[in-house]
Amino acid sequence: MKVRFLAAAALAAMLAVAASTASARPSAPARAAANKITVWLQVDAQSGWPNLVAAANQQFEAKHPGTKVDVQYQTWGDHLSKFDATLAGGNTPDVIEMGNTEMTKYMAAGAFANLSSQKGSFANSKNWLKGLAASGVYNGKTYGVPYYAGSRVVTYRTDLFRKARAKTPTSLAQFTVTAKRLKKQNSKRGFSPVYIAGTDWYFAMSFVYDYGGSIASLKGRKWVGRLESKKARAGLAAYKRFFTAASRASKTGTENRPQPYDVYSRGQAASIVGPAWFSCCVGKKYTKSTKQFVMPSHVKGQGMPGFLGGSDLAVPAGSNDKSLAADWIRIFTSTAGEKGLQAKGNIPNATNLLGNSVNERAAKRSWFVPTAKNWVNVENGNVLRTMLARILTGKATIAQATAFADSNIELTLNQ
Asked: Which of 212, 310, 385, 407 is 20 to 30 A from 125, comparing alpha carbons?
């Protein structure tokens, strides 16, 4: 936790130095006369949709004669350290792709330009995916434009569901009944109808949001924990009931030890919940009998809100020309651009563009963690994991566990 605080402080200091250095330079006219913008995208675009990048560049350069686009492809492993170096050196790119969970630290430190006044000029902004759009908002201001998303779904064995005479569930109640049938038919030790690690808070919080609750919200300038609310507690009660009926996993276990797809590939689960790419790792034995469906809500016919992965596009505060940078993003994330991404198998950034694939249907309802600069300390402090473990093991009631969690969340976020 201390390391995270030091990193945030170092970033803030770095930005302050960069700003003072830039203001002291007498060569502002030379910077304004720059004849190119630099765009940092991840290598996914280079290998997956280079034609879409080229089309956006061509359209931009036709609209802005004399200005070229220099696309520099980055890797997820080191792009943040490279970006930090450009912040210190005062030579940031003009556009940068960020993972949605990476945004908050930089928004809080003032590293990105405020795009709030321009939000309406970006295509489909009224319908941006809720969970992805939220990752680009800090203190009510928009700093990131949704690029594309990744959803969470249920990966399941059709042979076992067929044997249990179970159809694809359209409600949480129906899925619970199916889980109970699967449990009766598969009594071998450790087998889970739905493998769920007890402290998988990404999945558990989906129940909270499904019942209308939330983790925390900003009230004035203070963060307030919301897990004690009636709706959040109802969601947690539903999670406990479903876990008890469906999973034989450890009540205190985490979602990556073991990985759910490893449990599935060993024949120890009829279904698992997680990113859609889990289907790649189910094992050759179960490849043909594996399909996916949207995790159902407690409201019949509706999908449960899921935590979205994905990317945003931002304009660094040190951009040579923020207006041109924003216009490149505007062109790249146009309806045509997003439909192009969709054709490549990605989830587009707005609900009105979604198709009928399982992944896209799962993205219709989504949520994101509070965009507070200290949120990472809530995660590192295992506040939500501790709450879930206490609830599932019976060491605390839902009322007691949520009260303790809210107290910790407020103390941490408001530091």
From this structure: 212
